[in-house]
Amino acid sequence: MGKVLYEDCKMVTLNAPYVAGFLGFREAPPLLQALEKLKNVQPNLMPQVLFVDGNGLFHYREFGLACHLGVLSDLPCVGVAKNLLHVEGVVRSEEHQSQINALQKSGDSFPLATTSGRVLGKALRSSHSSIKPVYVSVGHRITLDTAVRLTHTCCLYRVPEPIRQVIVATRSSLYPDQMVTAVTRIQYVSRPDGGSASRKDLYSPERQRRPGQLDEPQIQTPCKGLVSDDHWDKTTGTC
Asked: Where is it found, in Gene Ontology cellular component terms (predicted)?
């Protein structure tokens, strides 16, 4: 897996109101500004493909944020959503759960087909350590099979690294002075149904003295409190 070559964080004001299904009108403008800045500052690092934390064709109007950004930037774009959007008969049902349970290994996937038979995306088991899939769909200038293959290739954990690194950088920008220390160790044991169950061993942070504060301990906050479960490494107990 490669390393981060460029990073830029900026606080922006979103002027468009939140309306379900119209996320592109709210978030695409600042993303386009970030791409334009990269083009001016380091044009040699312009991406060959964009990963978007959201949907592409798998959308109420078959035009999610990944499509919106891809068309406006004219770059190949992949939509990767962590939660299932209910679109044309694709819902979180027993049948859908049984399809998820059938994903035995990392890289396994199944199509997200609407009631009319159109395949708008795929559910992908992106990591061996996570049984929850991500939902991959075409944004722009890419095939679905290629989008799924690239997404799986970029995954160390459940969420592909281009998206996960953005989330990590954003959290660091929002909490620059926060001392983050993992104090929870999670071990996994097998269950009879083939899944896994966690056993948590909690450790109280050691009290550390600082000059002039003889009795006040440093505050140590579990990393898990600052990131979502999707980005919490259940194997090591770290982000």
From this structure: cytoplasm; nucleolus
